[in-house]
Design a protein that fits this description.
about 475 residues, alpha/beta, Aspartate Aminotransferase, domain 2, seven-stranded mixed beta sheet, about 10% strand
Length: about 475
């Protein structure tokens, strides 16, 4: 373990230096060398052939590696909904990597399983659902919620829709997928919904788009029309997916009205809250998710707005039986009668091996507290609103919609596809890293306020960068 202590010290020192360089903007927010050039620069072949990646060799390699990373800790990072992780969550990932407890089976990771059980209950309570009992298996059937942590929101959405499919077609694991099932979802739903439809054997034709307004928000008054069309096609609604909030522009669907429609017609309501469910922590913003307690399932990514190292996504259900019965499996080396002091989570997920995901979120919660995370959610959303007011006050900028989260779309003059070219230019020179999106057929630049230090200095500098580009400077 001498090498471990030495190499861990090298790693901590270099990461501290990396964080300082990024925060103080001493290096570009990103650099994109050609793949072959980067592989050659990292000098990987000698270590594969001879080993020796320790001490000075490790330090040199980490210098090369960190120098080629995208710096999420840089205040000019605005591109995607990926957390600027709190160091506590990163420490948890290191602890998990070293202990290597694949905790989907309780006996393979009791500490990790206990923390996940605790974290899921914390999230269930935030959603307004009854938490799981202190002793697994006790309690009245259907009287409490349930959940599990997965490696990412795409897998979480898939898991929730598997549960919805099993409820409407309980024999699906024996007889196959009925050919009349359908999913109702807005076109602005995350692409993982369409991908899940394909994985589940439903196909793209089973997706029925919900009508939305100019901001991409679902119109509850138009839900009967799409249901009527679906039924006329001889299909049954397996689930309706609502955004809380949408990935592209960060707007929330009206969940209470949608939930009332779903309950009237016996439709499973799934809320994709991967990014926006963190508003549940905020006293000021929780109302954006009013009605969430009426949904059947919810996903919530901690590796977005909860400062948690990836990946850590929750699948939550109002009735635990829906998740308990979602999968069918047989494996005598895993599933058999045994004395069980805890809980196995393996039957709730696609995964067999599962990392200690709950530890990552718990250590961030333990460092910042619930109030600290709530303040972060409010602060980042307030900065998006401040940026919106700034752009709207400038004669050469405009925004298609006011932000409800930390996501803001904006346009420079009457640019359309010019925004795409400008983004490429800023990525090439490493000055700003932001994304683009389409709304109502027009391209916009898109800011996601993830960095705790990103603010109006960066926004105004970005505006000036666009003006200079137009002048050819």
């Amino acid at each position: 373990m001498v090498d471990f202590k030495q190499d861990a010290g090298i790693l901590v020192r270099l990461l501290e230096q990396y964080h300082e360089e990024s925060r103080e903007k001493q290096q570009p927010v990103l650099q994109l060398p050609r793949l072959a050039e980067l592989i050659a620069h990292l000098d990987l072949d000698p270590f594969v052939a001879n080993g020796g990646l320790t001490g000075a060799a490790l330090e040199a390699f980490l210098h090369r590696y960190l120098g080629a990373t995208t710096r999420l800790h840089h205040p000019a990072y605005f591109a995607h909904q990926v957390a600027v992780p709190h160091y506590a969550g990163s420490l948890a990932a290191m602890v998990d990597g070293f202990t290597n407890n694949p905790m989907a089976i309780y006996e393979m990771g009791p500490a990790a399983a206990a923390i996940e059980y605790f974290i899921v209950n914390w999230m269930l309570e935030k959603a307004g659902w009854v938490p799981m009992p202190p002793v697994p298996g006790e309690g009245i059937p259907g009287s409490h919620g349930g959940g599990v942590l997965t490696h990412g929101g795409s897998l979480a959405n898939l898991t929730a829709l598997i549960a919805a499919r099993t409820r409407i077609a309980p024999d699906v694991w024996e007889t196959g997928v009925p050919d009349d099932l359908a999913i109702l979802a807005p076109a602005q739903a995350h692409y993982s919904i369409a991908r899940a439809a394909g994985i589940l054997g439903l196909g793209q034709r089973a997706l029925y788009p919900l009508e939305v307004d100019a901001a991409g928000v679902v119109r509850p008054d138009r839900l009967p029309a799409v249901l009527q069309r679906l039924c006329a096609d001889g299909r049954r609604p397996m689930a309706l997916v609502a955004n809380g909030c949408s990935t592209a522009v960060g707007r929330y669907d009206p969940l209470r009205e949608i939930a009332a429609f779903c309950r009237e017609h016996g439709i499973w309501l799934h809320v994709d809250g991967a990014h926006g469910a963190s508003a549940l922590l905020s006293r000021r913003r929780r109302a954006l998710l009013a009605g969430i307690e009426l949904a059947d399932s919810l996903i919530w990514d901690a590796h977005k707005m909860l400062r948690t190292a990836p990946l850590c996504a929750a699948v939550l259900v109002r009735d635990h039986r829906d998740l308990e019965g979602a999968f069918h499996q047989e494996a005598s080396y895993l599933f058999h009668a045994k004395r069980q002091p805890g809980v196995d989570l393996i039957h709730r997920t696609v995964e067999c091996t599962k990392a200690a995901l709950g530890l990552r979120l718990f250590m961030v919660l333990g460092a910042l507290g619930e109030r600290g995370l709530a303040d972060y959610v409010d602060r980042q959303s307030d900065r998006a609103l401040e940026a919106y007011r700034y752009f709207e006050s400038q004669p050469d900028f405009s925004c298609p919609v006011a932000p409800q989260s930390n996501i803001l779309c904006f346009a420079y003059r009457d640019w359309n596809e010019e925004h795409l070219r400008m983004r490429d230019q800023m990525i090439a020179d490493g000055t700003f890293y932001l994304s683009t999106t389409q709304l109502n057929g027009r391209w916009y630049l898109r800011l996601v306020f993830m960095h705790p230090m990103s603010g109006m200095n960066e926004v105004e500098a970005l505006a000036n960068r666009l003006r200079e580009a137009e002048r050819g400077q």
